[in-house]
Amino acid sequence: MAITSEQIAKLANVSRGTVDRALHNRGGVSPEVSARIKKIAAELGYTPNTAASALARTKKRTTVGIIIPANQNYFFDNMKSGLLLAQEEFSNYGIQLEIFQTYGLDEYNQLKYIEELEKKGMNGLLISPVNTEKIKNKIIQLTENKIPVITLNSDIEKSKRLCYVGHDYYQSGKTAEGMMALINNRKFKLAIITGSTKSLSQSQRVEGFINNAKKRSHDFDIVEICENNDDDIDSYLQTLRILKEYKDLNALYITGSGIYGVVKALKELKLERKICVITFGDLPRTLEYVIEDTIDATICQNVFDQGYVSAKLMFNYIIKNEYPNKDKYYTKIDIRIKENILPNY
Amino acid sequence: MAITSEQIAKLANVSRGTVDRALHNRGGVSPEVSARIKKIAAELGYTPNTAASALARTKKRTTVGIIIPANQNYFFDNMKSGLLLAQEEFSNYGIQLEIFQTYGLDEYNQLKYIEELEKKGMNGLLISPVNTEKIKNKIIQLTENKIPVITLNSDIEKSKRLCYVGHDYYQSGKTAEGMMALINNRKFKLAIITGSTKSLSQSQRVEGFINNAKKRSHDFDIVEICENNDDDIDSYLQTLRILKEYKDLNALYITGSGIYGVVKALKELKLERKICVITFGDLPRTLEYVIEDTIDATICQNVFDQGYVSAKLMFNYIIKNEYPNKDKYYTKIDIRIKENILPNY
DNA sequence: TTGAAAGCGGTACCAG
DNA sequence: CTGGTACCGCTTTCAA
User: Fold this and answer.
1) How far apart are CA B242 and CA A102, in angstroms?
2) What is the nearest CA distance from A293 to chain B, expressed in angstroms?
3) pLDDT digits over A141-173, tens only?
4) How far apart, in whole angstroms, are the C-alpha atoms of residue A266 and residue B246?
5) Helix or strand holding residue A167 (H, E)
6) N or C: which terminus of chain B carries fewer CB neighbours within 10 A?
7) Rounded distance in angstroms from the CA atom of residue B59 to the C1' atom of nucleotide D6
8) Radius of gyration (Cα) for chain A, nearest Å?
9) DSSP H/E element including B82
10) Which residues contact B69 (CB under 8 A, 6 or more apart)?
11) CA-derived radius of gyration, chain B
12) CA–CA separation, B326 vs B165, rounded Å?
C-alpha cells in the first residue's frame, strides 16, 4: 500500500491539512513543522495520489494558454491534435486550453495574446515564439511571475522557459544529406532551395546538410542556394531557371515550402524521375509526390508528438509540480519514402 | 461542469448505486430500470470521472499478466520499458503487472505461465504468442471467460483476442526494398539472409521485399535466399560463401539476427563499403554498424511504443471498459541511417 | 499557524 | 432488485 498524507500527518503529529500545506508550499506553516513534514515525506518516499488530488480539485479550473501559428493548416492541426489528446488524458484535472493562432510569426499579436491570457489568469503557456527581444523578455517576466512557459516547435535561448519541445533542425539537415548521399552514391551536384536564409530553422537545415557532406567527405557541388520566400510561384520560376541553367544537376534539396512549385517545374522539363529530390514535412501534397516517385524522401518531425509531449510536460508541472528532466525534448526524425508512408497509427 | 452519476440518479429516480450497477452491467438491476438509466446517461453524454473511480477502487488490485520472450534482451527490455511507463501513468489504478519471459518461442512454458496467471486471477493478458493451435485455443478460452487478451509483437489470427499491437512485417519488407532501390538506383543483385523460412514474420519481410521489387519493376536478381537460423556463426559462414561465389553481388538483405556474422564476413573480404546492406532492428550493435557505414540502413519497429500502446489499451479496457477501436495497431516503420540515430527521446 | 470537517464522484457492502 | 452509506486520499474553507 502506498504512503498517504494521513500517515505522514500521524508521524508528524499534525493534521492532514498541514501536511498538504507544507508539501505544496502553500504558506501558513511554521518553518520547523514544514521541515519536519518534508523530511518524513522524503524518507517514506511519499508520492501524492494523483487521482485523489484530481478529484479534490475538480471545481478549480486551470487554464493553459497556447499560441501557435495558423499557416500551413495541416501542420498545426496535427500539433493541435496532439495537444488535445493530452488534454483528454488529463480531462479529470479540469484543464482548459485557450488556443490562439497568429498568421505567420507575428510579434505584435503574440504579445497581445500573451497579455490577454495573463488577464484571464492563465496557469501556464505553450508557445511557438517569434525570436525577438520583446517576446523573450515577456517569457522571462512570465516565468518570474511563476507562470511556466514551454516553447514549442521554435525556441528562444536564455528565455528561462521551462523547456523546449520540438525538432532538431540541424540534425534533420544532416539526415537529409545522409539520404541524398545514399541515393546518389556520395556524389551529387545540387541546388538548395530554401524559404529564406533569415529563417533560423531553415538555415539550420542548410547548415546541417552542408556540414555533414563536408564531414563525410562526400563529393558534392552546390551550384546555388536560392530563396523562394516559401512561395510556390517564386519557387516554380526559380527552379525552372536553375534546371535550365545547370544541365548536369542531379539533386534538389528543399528546406521549406514551395514544394508544389518545384515539382511543377520538374514535371514541365520531364526531369522528375532523373533528379533526386529531398524535402521536409508530411503535408498531404508532399506525401503524394513521394508516392508518385517525384520526391525521393521527405524528412518529418512528428508534430503531433510535439503537441502531445509539450502539453503533458506542462500539465505534470502544474498539477504534480514535476519538473521536465531535460532542457530540450527533440522529437524523432522520421525518413519517409514511398513504402513507409502509412495511414496514421 | 461534467455530468455525474448523482445527476443521472436524480433524473431516473434511483440511487447512485443503481446507476453504477446499471451502467457497468454488474447485474441485479431490473431491465426496465437499467434501460432507463442507460438512456438518460447516453442522452446527457455521461462519461464517468476516472479520477473518482480510480480513487474508489484503490483497495482493489487488478493484475495484468505479460508473457514475452526473453531472448535478444535489449529488444524486449525496450518493450518492457514501454509497458512500465504505461503502468506508471496508471499507477493510481492499482494495476499490477506480472511479467513472465520465456526463452524463445516456447509453447510449453507459455501455456504453463498462462495457467499460473489464471490461478492468480489475472484480469487481462498481454502476450507475444507462439502461433500454435494450443495457444490459440487457450486465448479463445480466456476471452470466453471474460479475460481480455491482447497480442503483442506477434499475432494469432482468429484467436478472438481484443486486438493486435505490433509491427507490419510485410510492409517493413517493402520499405527495405524501397530503400535498397533508392540506394542502388533500382538495380541490384542480392542475397537474402533470413533466420528461418518457417518464421512467419521473417518470411513476410522476404515476401514484402520481393513483391515490392516486382510491383515497381525494379531490375533485381536474387541469387540466393539462405537461412542462418538466426545464428552468428552460421551467418558468418554462409555470407562468406555467398560473397565468394557471386563476385558481382551488390546487396545483402538481412531479415533477422546473425548481423554480426554477416558484418564479420563482409569485413574479412573488405567489402563492407561496396555492398549495400539493409537490416532490421535497433540493437546497439546494429546501430554501431550503421554509424560506421557498414550497414546502410536498418528498419525499426518501435518496440517501446508497442509495449506502451498495448498496455494502455488493456488498462483502458479493464478500467473504463473502452474497446480498442482497431483490430490491429501497427507501430510506425522507422528508417534509421547514420544521421538519424539519436539518443532516445 | 493549525485542526477539523466537508466535500470531489464512484464503488461496494449491507440491509431490506 | 434497490437504497443507503461508508469509504478512497487530497484540497480547501472555516474556526480556533
Assistant:
1) 60
2) 11
3) 999 998 999 999 999 999 999 999 999 999 999
4) 39
5) none
6) N
7) 14
8) 25
9) helix B73-89
10) B76, B101, B102, B103, B104, B105, B128
11) 25
12) 10
The CA-to-CA distance between both ends of chain A, in Å, stands at: 37
- CB of B13 nearer than 7 A to strand D: yes
Domains of chain A: 5-48 (1.10.260.40), 61-167+303-332 (3.40.50.2300), 169-300 (3.40.50.2300)
CA distances from B210 to B192, B197, B221 (A): 10, 14, 10
Shortest CA distance from B215: residue in chain A: A339
Beta-bridge partner residues of A277:
A252
3-state secondary structure of B101: strand
Q: Establish whether the CB of B43 is closer than 7 Å to any nucleic acid atom in strand C.
A: no
pTM of the model: 0.91
Considering only A47-56, A160-169, B243-252, which range has the smallest mean pLDDT?
A47-56
Interface test with B, best of A277, A313, A340, A345 (most B CBs within 10 A): A340
> Using the CA of B34, which nucleotide's C1' is the nearest one?
D1
pLDDT in tens, B124-140: 999 999 989 999 999 99
Residue A139 has what pLDDT?
97
SS3 A303: helix
Provide the strand spans (E) within B29-185. 62-69, 95-102, 124-127, 149-152, 163-166
DSSP state of B132: -
What would the grid cell of residue B14 be?
434511483
Contact B92 A177 (CB under 8 A): no
pLDDT at A103: 86
Concatenating the DSSP letter of every residue in A236-282 gives: HHHHHHHHHH-TT--EEEE-SS-HHHHHHHHHHTT-TTTSEEEEE--
Q: Is the CB of B337 less than 8 angstroms away from the CB of A55?
A: no
Under a CB-based contact definition with an 8 Å cutoff, are residues A176 and A299 in contact? Answer: yes
Name the packing angle between helices B31-44 and B5-12 (round to 10°): 130
pLDDT at residue A200, as a whole number: 87
